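[job 4471] stage=fold_predict status=RUNNING
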Amino acid sequence: MRRFRSMTVASAVLTVLLSASSAPAFDHDRPGVFDYYVLVLGWSPTYCLIEGRLRRDTQCDAKTPHDFVLHGLWPQYDRGWPKDCYAGRRPWVPSEVIDTMRDIMPSKSLIIHEYATHGTCAGLTPEQYYDAARALYDRISLPPEFTDPEARRDLSAESVEREFLAANPWLSADMIAVTCRRDALLDIRVCFDRDLHPRKCGPNEDQRRLCRAGTINVPAP
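[job 4471] inference complete, writing structure tokens
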């Protein structure tokens, strides 16, 4: 299991939580005003088959195939979610931060987009936001079946979820959701509270809405 490195990051997140605690509950799209996080792990083969290769995304370079990549860390309301939160200046991700994330987020444009769209709503600097995202990514153990480059299977969303729960016994079924697109596995979503502890997901992660297919394809890396 990847080591969980969140103590320092959690302190930064807690500072944001305390500074935002006096904000009214209905004040949406303000930095630091949200209820919980969703960590999104994207199944790279599906993205590349559907649109990534057409975009010539570097994530889809056949010489360096990927399985689960960090798609993002999304602040959520109990219902709905903020995005593009304005903090008085244009979002900027330093090149050194981008470089440190390229091993788990192979696309530079994705790194920049995720901070501008979601990281700004966390109320964190790019460094704090991506430290938190990496700490949570590192905590997730991938089921062995999903790291086999020869594997190509048809599964149900429930069976994918069961494999992740077996590999991560600290999770429960209400903390995780599976999404699909065109009947193929798209991503895994895991919910955490503002202090980066696992928590129950909200209606945003309703499994019936995120993947209605009875059987989903899991294309090989």
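[job 4471] summary: The chain has a mean pLDDT of 87.
[job 4471] exit 0
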